[in-house]
Design a protein that fits this description.
Structural class: alpha/beta
Mean pLDDT: 96
Strand order of the largest sheet: 3-2-1-7-18
CATH class of the largest domain: Alpha Beta
Shape: globular
Distance between the termini: 64 Å
CATH superfamily of the largest domain: FAD/NAD(P)-binding domain
Number of strands: 23
Low-confidence stretches: none
CATH architecture of the largest domain: 3-Layer(bba) Sandwich
Number of helices: 11
Radius of gyration: 24 Å
CATH topology of the largest domain: FAD/NAD(P)-binding domain
Strand content: 15-25%
Largest sheet: 5 strands, parallel
Length: 459
Amino acid sequence: MKIVVIGGGIGGYTAAIKAAQYKAEVVLIEKGKLGGTCLNRGCIPTKAFLHDAHIIDAVHTSKALGIFDSVPNHNVQAIIDRKNTVVERLRDGIASLCKANKVELIEDEAGFIDSHTIVLKNSQQKISADVFIIATGSMPHRLPVEGAQSDEVWTSDDCFDTPVLPGQHVCLIGGGVIGVELATFYKSIGCNVTVIEAQKRILPNMDRDAANQLATLLKKQSVTILTNAFVKEIKSTPPFQVICTVNDIEHKIVADRIIQSVGRKAVFSELKPENARIETSKIIQVNDAYQTNIPHIYAIGDVNGQSWLAHAAAAQAKVAMDHIFHPYTKPHKLLIPSVVYSDPQIASIGLDETMAKEQNIDINIGKFLVSANGKHVVEGKDRGFIKIITDKENKILGCTIFSHLASEMIAYMTQAILTNQTIESLESVVFPHPTITESLEDAMADVLGLAIHSFPKVR
């Protein structure tokens, strides 16, 4: 079987390697740099920046504790250079994995001629295959307002190669995951930061308590957050300005750099899906196996609009490949955790209180303040909590973690939900001490009012 994967991001290269493990002949086509948005303009660059920002914050904290006598100046260009080193190392690693799995890599842009054939834009080579996997990803949205289309107004794609210097004012339009992560970085390197969000709060799709507490912490760190704010115009020539209304009152925000972080949109028009009779709207529609309406053509990752997360794209790739080689097995449903790499991080899986209420589900809630955890105190952290949602039989339905290690802990609760665990069925799990993860034990026990490190619930 010959499989052609179009798009070399995390979804695409995962699909290619998985197909090779099934002994297929595999071609992976990428028009840009291997690794896609996640590696080159998204997940990895952002986390490299945030890692270095945490070091800067730690130095300032150490000075306040008297451990250091002074705080050295930091070098923003060095942060960018280190990011480039990380990205290049990982990109080389992906190329090596593809080579080791005998995946043929082609650097070109593909377009469908018909449902079984593509043509490469530069070489004009035609390639036919038994199966095609579309993994062409997404690009940042821009607001439909005057000035928003200017190249002088950045999107998240533009943040990783040009330094923004300490003391400069950064205005972030959008208080979702991308905006909050960029705000966390820019405030740590000494920029003045303003976040503009059209909803009533930042991170409107995350747990309300966690989002509100994070907003409070950011404000304490001198980040200005404007909610219920609607952008009317962007002046894209210096001095840059964002003109917005907040509760019907006009505000003019002057900034050295304006960055739009207002979501993403699927990219597939250059692929000419109409030539293959693939049904599309703003996304490519797929079924539970990630098949399009053309059974031998699949679409995974951002391009199908089901999730805009890199790990979701990789998980969808595996489901699609399993379906190709085991077509009579029912595809399993994916349960995708979400993470905001703020400080503290927010990670969530399954239902939160708002979702449960909307679905009329009667729930129990357990909550543990991580500030009572020994390791949390040792590491000098401030706020944090873990919230567990169960049904009335104590089956775990969801979890939100607000902690600097939330991203490393959420997989445990994901597995608990997938395997239909109850609070009682996990009681015998022993967590090492001292660790942040032992806070999960107290949060689960609090559902029953039996947490050791919390004050007794009022009965």
